[in-house]
Design goal:
This is Kinesin motor domain-containing protein. InterPro entries: Kinesin_motor_dom_sf, P-loop_NTPase. The protein has 310 residues and is α+β, with helices and mostly antiparallel strands. The protein contains seven helices and seven strands. It folds into two domains: 192 residues, Kinesin motor domain (Kinesin, 3-Layer(aba) Sandwich); 100 residues. A hairpin with a 2-residue loop joins strand 3 and strand 4.
Length: 310
C-alpha cells in the first residue's frame, strides 16, 4: 500500500511522514517513473499488508495525517488476485491463474486548476451540453502519476474512486446497450412509453437546464461584478478628486487668513505712524504759533518804542 499527498505539482509521502524520526536525514525526492505496471513514484514508501487487520490499522493511522492536510490525497493498493479452475484435461487437478490489480482511491479536496478544467470540460462533453468539446490534457502532478485515467474515459460517478474496475463497468454498459439494440430489433417497442426511460430523459433535461441556468447565472454574476468594480473605481476617483479640492480649499483659506492678519498688521502700523505724525505736526504747529506770537509781540514792542521816541 502507498499513500501520497498531491499538493499542486509536488508529492508528499504520507507514510514517510509518519515514520520519519529526528536525525533521519533529508527525505527522498519522489519522481514519477514509467515501469511495466505503469507510472509509479520512485522513492515512495510501500507497506506490505498481510490482511484486513493491517489495512484497517494503517488507514486509521493515515486518517490522523489526512485530517491535518488540505490537498488531493491518493491511496494506491496493489494486490494479486488468484483464481483456481478445474483442469479439463487432468481430472482432479486445478489450474491457478493470477493477475495483478491496482486500485487508486482519490480524495479530491484541492484540485489543481488544470485538472479541474479537465473535469469541467469532460462533464460538458458527457452530459451533451457541448458534445464537440475537446478535453484538454494539462500536465499536472496528478496526471503524471495516473495517466491512464484519461485513456479509459470519464464517468462522473467515478470521480471519488478511480480504478481499473471502470473497465468492468464499461463492459456492463456495453452489454446493456447491446441488449437494448437486440430488443429493438425483436419487437421494436415504443421506448417513449417506458416510464423509467421517460423519467431518465426528464431528469437529463432538468440537469441540462440547471447547468445552463448555472452558466447564465455565473455570466450574470461576472457582469454585475464588473459593473461593481467599475463603480468602485469611479467612486475612488471621485473621492480622490474631492480630497484634492478639499486640500486646495484648505490651503486657500489659510492663505486668506494669513493675508487678513498681514493687512490688519499693516493697518495698525499705518495708524500708529499716522498718529505719531499727527502728534509731531501738532507740536510743530504749537512751536510755530509760539514763534509767531513772539515775533508779533516783538514787532509791537519795537513799534511802540519808535513812537515813544518821536
Amino acid at each position: 500500500m502507498e499513500a501520497v499527498d498531491i499538493s499542486g505539482d509536488s508529492y508528499v509521502d504520507l507514510l514517510a511522514i509518519r515514520r520519519t524520526r529526528p536525525g533521519a536525514g533529508d527525505p527522498v525526492e519522489l519522481k514519477v517513473q514509467m515501469g511495466p505496471d505503469g507510472a509509479r513514484l520512485h522513492g515512495v514508501t510501500t507497506t506490505e499488508i498481510r490482511g484486513s487487520h493491517d489495512l484497517r490499522a494503517l488507514l486509521k493511522q493515515l486518517i490522523k495525517v489526512v485530517k491535518k492536510r488540505n490537498s488531493t490525497h491518493t491511496v494506491t493498493i496493489r494486490f494479486t488476485e488468484t483464481f483456481e479452475f478445474d483442469d479439463p484435461e487432468n481430472v482432479g487437478q486445478s489450474v491457478t491463474k493470477s493477475r495483478r490489480v491496482q486500485v487508486v482511491f482519490v480524495i479530491l479536496r484541492n484540485l489543481p486548476a488544470g485538472f479541474q478544467r479537465v473535469v469541467d470540460v469532460a462533464v460538458e462533453h458527457d452530459s451533451g451540453e457541448n458534445p464537440l468539446a475537446k478535453v484538454p490534457t494539462r500536465e499536472t502532478a496528478f496526471t503524471r502519476l495516473h495517466p491512464g485515467i484519461f485513456t479509459q474515459g470519464y464517468n462522473i460517478t467515478f470521480v471519488d474512486c478511480l480504478s481499473p474496475y471502470y473497465e468492468h463497468v464499461r463492459e456492463n454498459v456495453n452489454t446493456l446497450i447491446f441488449s437494448l439494440k437486440v430488443q429493438k430489433l425483436k419487437g421494436k417497442p415504443r421506448q417513449s412509453n417506458d416510464e423509467s426511460l421517460v423519467e431518465m430523459r426528464r431528469l437529463a433535461d432538468e440537469v441540462k437546464g440547471l447547468k445552463v441556468t448555472v452558466r447564465r447565472q455565473s455570466e450574470a454574476m461576472q457582469t454585475v461584478q464588473k459593473e461593481l468594480n467599475a463603480r468602485e473605481v469611479e467612486l475612488m476617483k471621485r473621492e480622490a478628486k474631492y480630497n484634492e479640492v478639499n486640500t486646495n480649499l484648505t490651503d486657500t483659506r489659510q492663505r486668506v487668513q494669513l493675508m487678513t492678519v498681514s493687512r490688519n498688521i499693516e493697518v495698525d502700523k499705518t495708524n500708529r505712524v499716522k498718529g505719531e505724525m499727527s502728534k509731531e505736526l501738532s507740536a510743530k504747529k504749537k512751536e510755530m504759533q509760539v514763534v509767531e506770537d513772539n515775533k508779533t509781540a516783538k514787532d509791537k514792542a519795537t513799534k511802540e518804542g519808535c513812537e515813544g521816541r518821536e
